[in-house]
Fold this protein.
Amino acid sequence: MWKTILRRVLIMIPELIILSILVFLLAKLMPGDPFTGSINPRLGQAQIHHLMRINGLYDPWYQQYWNWVVHLFHGNLGTSYEYHEPVIDLIKQRGANTLYLAVFTMVLTYVIGLPLGIYAGKHEGKLQDTLVQIYTYVTMAIPYFVVLVVGIWIFGYGLNLFPTAGSVSPQANGFGPTLLSRIGHILLPGLLGALFGTVNIVQYLRSEVIDSKHSEYVRTIRAKGVPMPAIYRHHIFRNSLLPIAAFAGYSITGLLGGSIFTEMVFSYPGMGLLFLNAINFRDYTVITALVLLYGFLNLLGTLLSDIVLSIVDPRIRVS
């Protein structure tokens, strides 16, 4: 297994190289430049051309790409044209915020989704199953950004229960107050994200539980006198987890990539909001670094999903 994982990691290298070239070219093909109107609206064309020249933006694309690769191997992802900070520092700062929100959302998603899916499958065709299905249908029907706006309007501005912007309150000093403030800022967006993230988990798990419940091997086990709680615990639940495990890696890496909708509505300073601002301001260095990071996370998610599948079902091996 370890040899296979090493081989998969080595295969990622040429894939990331191709991705970096494509992303670099597409970023350079974007109209506009990172200096016009972003530094000083009164900046003249001569000064803009000077900034473009000293930053190497008039060099051929292959020379710019080579310089970027050389700096990358020295741990330098460049400097943001918008924030005037090293890109690596921006990613560390925003990545930490996204990590807190992603972990909290993921834990809530599985805490809510797994019991609901099993509960609906066990009570197939009954009132309990109908109520769970109504919840999933309503969740799928309403656009995600609408729920975010309504949620922040009701619980943030109306009831004033949760903060409506930022990741930590400026008044929080010390470890304890900072931790409580950070938790308070991720509670509402994490809960709303988890409620929508449970839809696929509930639907897949419900279907798998129902299929397993009516399968031949379960009938055979029941005929041997094994009680249903033990059958659910040792057989149905474990087999039903396979499709959920297949999405586990993608869920983790997808959340780490940041949710643009969530971070934009809540003005949460994470990776998604950083990427959106980078596109708006033609911040080439940030765009290239983030897309390359997202590509790596996507490839990593594929590998993690295979590993999780092999853990849940030892008959499956990473290949």
Observations:
- The chain has two domains: 2-73, 89-284+291-312.
- The mean pLDDT is 81.
- Residues 5 and 11 are 10 Å apart (CA to CA).
- Residues 2-73 form one domain.
